[in-house]
Amino acid sequence: MNILAIESSCDETSASVLSNGKICSNVVATQLIHTQYGGVVPELASRAHQQHILPVVDKALTDAKVTKKDLDAIAFTKGPGLLGALLVGTSFAKSMALGLGLPLIEINHMQAHVLAHFIQDPKPEFPFLCLTVSGGHTQIVKVTSPLEMEVIGQTRDDAVGEAFDKTAKLLDLPYPGGPLIDKYAKTGNPLAYTFPLPEMPELDFSFSGIKTSFMYFLQKQVRENPNFIKENIEDICASVQHTLVNILLKKLKKAAKETGIKEIAIAGGVSANSGLRTSLLELGQQLNWKVYIPDFEYCTDNAAMIAMAAHYKYLNADFCDQTVSPMARMEF
Fold first, then answer.
1. Phi, psi (rounded to 5 degrees) for 266
2. CA-based R_g, the chain, Å
3. Overall pTM > 0.90
4. Which DSSP category does 18 fall into?
5. Answer CATH for 2-114+299-315 from 3.30.420.40, 1.20.1440.230, 3.60.40.10, 3.40.50.300
6. Residue ranges of the domains in the chain?
7. Residues near 124 by Cβ (< 8 Å), separated by ≥ 6?
8. Please, are residues 110 and 42 in contact by the beta-carbon 8 Å criterion?
């Protein structure tokens, strides 16, 4: 069984080939053009996908030593994501499947992040909890099987990835700023500055307030000392990162206690953050959790996770037809 998977939800054009449940290739083309604008520009992302998708798919097939005639299905990201970007990947997948007479498999991008844990060993046992954290989502997902997932907690406003990026922008750090906050935080004091933690009911999150609090904090400090950011960048980043990670793990700890589940995983772009990874491992040791953290290449957007999700759908004969359309917003 050979599946070609395509990912184009945001600013990475990616293709992957999965053979008999194993990833044989995973090619990602990153769009550097957005750096000069301080964020992803949807129209530019769509145009870049159009330029990259054919060579990326060709390289994925070549690296896997698989030809178009060897394929059994084509999978693609249906959503959520930028509509124009999704449209490029969806249209390409539909056209290729139609031309080759192959079945189509639509994939939920966030479910694919969860199933990235099944690309390599060790794999979590069911049921497990997965904290999915990215620029657009912050969720706690209860995973009962590869095809059964339930969101038991999520952000009421902004995602934690957006909080990292907006904080970086206030600090005048270049895009993408999240990794730079992580870099500076490694040599800073996480207790240098404190910020109020949001009070949210149940297992839900909120990050709009922490962004506003940080903005006012920064404005006040810069008025008193124009060189405040430059002189304290490491401590500022460490303190912000410490606060955001604490918000995440506080809710994850509560979810584990309420469900009685000790198999704990993280996924999504923010799961590449070293502060989150280290703190989760430490918390897991304290609470006797089995913690699962994906390799860095499977944290950010990639087609290997789309291929793995498609693998389970293929086994269940869960296909779609040519009337399928991308969805910018898409629930589990």
1. -130, 155
2. 20
3. yes
4. E
5. 3.30.420.40
6. 2-114+299-315, 124-293
7. 117, 130, 143, 263, 265, 290, 292
8. no
Give the architecture-level CATH label for domain 124-293: 2-Layer Sandwich (3.30)
Q: What DSSP state is assigned to residue 201?
A: S
Residue type, 316: N
- Looking up tokens 């913690």 gives 291
| Contacts of residue 24, Cβ cutoff 8 Å, sequence gap at least 6 | 17, 18, 63, 64, 65, 66
Q: How far apart are CA 111 and CA 54, in angstroms?
A: 25
Q: Which backbone phi and psi does 214 adopt, to 5 degrees? A: -65, -40
Give dist(CA 178, CA 161) in Å, integer. 7
Residue with tokens 């590449």: 272
pLDDT tens by residue, the chain, 332 residues: 999 999 999 999 999 999 999 999 999 998 878 887 778 899 999 999 999 999 999 999 999 999 999 999 999 999 999 999 999 999 999 999 999 999 999 999 999 999 999 999 999 999 999 999 998 899 999 999 999 999 999 999 999 999 999 999 999 998 888 999 999 999 999 999 999 888 898 999 999 999 999 999 999 999 999 999 999 999 999 999 999 999 999 999 999 999 999 999 999 999 999 999 999 999 999 999 999 999 999 999 999 999 999 999 999 999 999 999 999 998 88
Output the six-digit token pair for 265: 């995983």
C-alpha to C-alpha distance for 133 and 163, rounded to whole angstroms: 11
Report the distance separating Cα 66 and Cα 89, nearest Å. 20
Structure tokens at 293: 């953290």
Q: What does the block give as tokens for 40? A: 């992803």
